C-alpha cells in the first residue's frame, strides 16, 4: 500500500484556521497602527493637553466610532492570538475549553466596558 500523504496530494486535516486568521491578524494590526498614528497626530498637533481637550476629541462621533472599531480589532486580534496559544500549548481538552471560554468572556466584558467608556465622554 503506497503512502499518498506527501506532496501535492497529501491529506490535510485540522481546523483550517491558518490563512484566514493570519490575514485577520494583519488587518487588525493595520487598523490599530492607523489609529495609533491618528492619535499621535492629534496629540502632537493639539494645543489643549488638558482633560477637556482630550474629552473634546473623544466626544466627536467619528472618533468614537473609529475608537470602537479599533478596540473591536484589538479584541479580535487578542482572541486569535490567545486561541492559538491555548490550542498549541494546552493539550487537555477540558482545560483548553475552559481557558477559551474564559478568554471569550473576558474579551466580551472588555468590549462592553469599552462601549460604556466611549459613550460616557
From TrEMBL:
Its required cofactor(s), as named, are: heme
**Annotated metabolic or biological route of this protein:** Carbohydrate metabolism; tricarboxylic acid cycle
Listed Pfam families: Sdh_cyt (PF01127)
The topology of this chain with respect to the membrane is:
Multi-pass membrane protein
* InterPro entries in alphabetical order: SQR/QFR_C/D (IPR034804), Succ_DH_anchor (IPR014312), SuccDH_FuR_B_TM-su (IPR000701)
Q: Which compartments is it annotated to reside in?
A: Cell inner membrane
- Keyword Metal-binding tagged: yes
Keyword Metal-binding belongs to the record? yes
Q: Which UniProt keywords apply?
A: Cell inner membrane, Cell membrane, Electron transport, Heme, Iron, Membrane, Metal-binding, Transmembrane, Transmembrane helix, Transport, Tricarboxylic acid cycle
- Which sequence ranges are marked TM in the entry? 27-45, 65-85, 97-119
Name the job this protein performs. Answer: Membrane-anchoring subunit of succinate dehydrogenase (SDH).
Query: What name goes with this protein?
Result: Succinate dehydrogenase hydrophobic membrane anchor subunit
Amino acid at each position: 500500500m503506497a503512502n499518498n500523504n506527501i506532496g501535492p496530494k497529501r491529506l490535510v486535516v485540522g481546523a483550517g484556521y491558518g490563512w484566514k486568521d493570519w490575514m485577520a491578524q494583519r488587518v487588525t494590526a493595520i487598523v490599530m497602527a492607523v489609529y495609533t498614528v491618528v492619535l499621535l497626530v492629534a496629540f502632537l498637533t493639539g494645543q489643549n493637553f488638558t482633560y477637556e481637550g482630550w474629552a473634546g476629541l473623544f466626544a466627536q462621533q467619528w472618533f468614537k466610532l473609529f475608537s470602537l472599531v479599533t478596540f473591536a480589532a484589538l479584541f479580535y486580534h487578542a482572541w486569535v492570538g490567545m486561541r492559538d496559544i491555548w490550542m498549541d500549548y494546552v493539550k487537555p481538552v477540558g482545560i483548553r475549553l475552559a481557558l477559551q471560554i474564559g478568554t471569550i468572556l473576558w474579551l466580551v466584558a472588555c468590549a462592553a466596558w469599552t462601549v460604556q467608556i466611549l459613550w460616557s465622554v
